TrEMBL record:
Its cofactor is Zn(2+). The keyword Transmembrane helix does not apply. One of its GO terms (biological process) is proteolysis involved in protein catabolic process. Pfam families: Peptidase_M48 (PF01435), TPR_19 (PF14559). Residues 68-254 form the Peptidase M48 domain. The lineage of its organism: Bacteria, Pseudomonadati, Pseudomonadota, Betaproteobacteria, Rhodocyclales. This is Putative Zn-dependent protease. InterPro entries: Mito/Outer_Membr_Metalloprot, Peptidase_M48, TPR-like_helical_dom_sf.
Length: 482
């Protein structure tokens, strides 16, 4: 379901670690019971899979703006889900196939192909609402659960195998055969009952969140028509989400009695799509394509079209042209955090640091919850060599976002700029720890201890964290042996 083009070596290794299928038959999938995975265990599994994806998956899209938009949209939907407090995290995969997938622990991946294929924000929201419902109803946990004797590491390996095998790739099939995990294949696709339940709850979620409920059926019907026309990019999602005539009829029946309402797309929806188009191919080609769309007025929102052209110019390092287009987009009177961030970055790139940083501060004051602005501002401070200011800002943000790996990486960069080696490696230790590389984190702390420039309180912090991580490493080794 994930990794639609190939299976990375780390996934092959994980799959080969799974014991033979005969020793761990999947249970019948039914109602949630006390024998299912606990939510805490499910979150641990999801966290470890996500660490592997961030660390090793080349198609993971580490883009501040795209991720911020997905989490804003997903968070809006999650607030009306069956479990608003579950704690969801959305991320993007740079893949042209039309796909989305839910992982254990509330991690939901969205292919860029889906973002570009959706013809309205309600259609995109319909797919996300469906995936959210798979999580809240514990569908993934019930697929993963083996027995209480299987350790977390084996479950993580199985989770990785499920995700890879859902891609239907030849490598995945070979890996599963080698690992003798044939029993997994019987439940790669969600059951029809699971699909109908997620359709129903997703439909309700859409309406409560203020979207057009018809978006779900419209998108799935178009997806089915695409398959009939042999558009292979459309098949990835349907392999794991069987779309029957009965399902479509159920969706359409739910629409009966709904009054007509036109739900406008947000500007952010169009901005993200323009950004994705502008980041494709060579910068010069992106400029040519985005300029043609603007000249021919082939756009749903002019501000987004100009933003896309500005970003293409930014990639091409044509700063004056980028500033001209982004300022024109801002001048259309539709405020958005993405517009302000690119305007600030263009100015910083031109050496106008004071002006760019001022734009960032004003935007953060207006959109305080936007993570793209937070990370972008920290980057801009570092690029402007304002290391002390960057450190103060990052520390303020970490007070409420202690597990934000980007902030810890930026903290390390700020300390490096200040020549503070011990604290630089103390920050890098947290980066390694959050990536699931406990041994690497311990090594960074050992380097920090030898640096010789930490004061008493800093050294105490380093030693305390070292003790915690060594205990954690012992638990990991014990789990691996079992």
């Amino acid at each position: 379901m994930l990794l639609t083009r190939r299976l990375p070596a780390f996934l092959l290794a994980a799959l080969l670690a799974v014991p033979p299928a005969g020793a761990q038959n999947l249970p019948e999938l039914g109602e949630v019971s006390s024998d299912d995975l606990s939510v805490l265990t499910e979150k641990r599994i999801g966290q470890q899979i996500m660490q592997e994806i961030r660390l090793r998956e080349a198609s993971y899209l580490d883009d501040y703006d795209v991720e911020a938009y997905l989490n804003q949209l997903g968070g809006r939907l999650a607030g009306f889900s069956q479990d608003p407090g579950f704690g969801f995290e959305f991320f993007a995969i740079n893949d042209p196939s039309i796909n989305a997938f839910a992982m254990p622990g509330g991690y939901i991946g969205v292919h860029t192909g889906l973002l570009l294929a959706a013809q309205s924000e309600s259609e995109l929201a319909g797919v996300l609402a469906h995936e959210l419902s798979h999580v809240t109803q514990r569908h993934i946990a019930r697929q993963l659960f083996q027995s209480k004797r299987i350790g977390i590491a084996s479950m993580v390996a199985m989770g990785l195998g499920l995700l890879a095998a859902r891609s239907n790739s030849q490598a995945a099939s070979a890996a599963i055969a080698t690992a003798q995990a044939g029993a997994i294949s019987a439940q790669l696709a969600y059951s029809r009952d699971f699909e109908r339940e997620s359709d129903r709850l997703g439909f309700e979620m859409l309406g409560k969140a203020g979207f057009d409920e018809r978006g779900m059926a419209l998108f799935f019907e178009r997806l089915r028509q695409s398959v009939r026309l042999y558009e292979n990019n459309a098949t990835a999602y349907l392999r794991t989400h069987p779309l029957t005539t009965e399902r479509l009829s159920d969706m359409q029946n739910r629409e009966q009695g709904l009054g007509y309402r036109q739900v406008p797309d947000s500007l952010e929806f169009h901005l993200v799509r323009a950004r994705l188009r502008a980041m494709q191919g060579r910068p010069a080609d992106a400029v040519k394509e985005m300029a043609a769309q603007l000249a021919e007025r082939k756009f749903a929102a002019e501000a987004a079209a100009r933003y896309g052209l500005a970003y293409a110019y930014f990639r091409a390092r044509d700063w004056p042209a980028a500033q001209r287009e982004i300022d024109a987009a801002r001048g259309l009177g539709q405020p958005a955090a993405m517009l302000e961030r690119l305007a600030a970055d263009v100015r910083v790139a031109q050496g106008k640091a004071d002006e760019g940083l001022r734009l960032y501060r004003e935007a953060i004051a207006r959109y305080p919850l936007n993570k793209a602005l937070v990370h972008g501002y920290a980057d801009a401070l570092l690029e402007s060599r304002r290391f002390r200011e960057a450190l103060r800002f990052v520390d303020q943000q970490l007070a409420s976002s202690a597990t934000d790996i980007r902030l810890h990486r930026q903290r390390g960069a700020a300390y490096a700029g200040l020549g503070r080696q011990a604290m630089q490696h103390r920050a890098l230790a947290e980066v390694f720890a959050l990536q699931g590389q406990t041994a690497g984190a311990i090594e960074q702390l050992e380097i920090a201890r030898r640096a010789g420039d930490a004061d008493f309180y800093e050294m105490s912090s380093i030693d305390a964290r070292m003790r915690e991580l060594k205990l954690q490493r012992l638990e990991e080794l014990k789990e691996k042996r079992n």
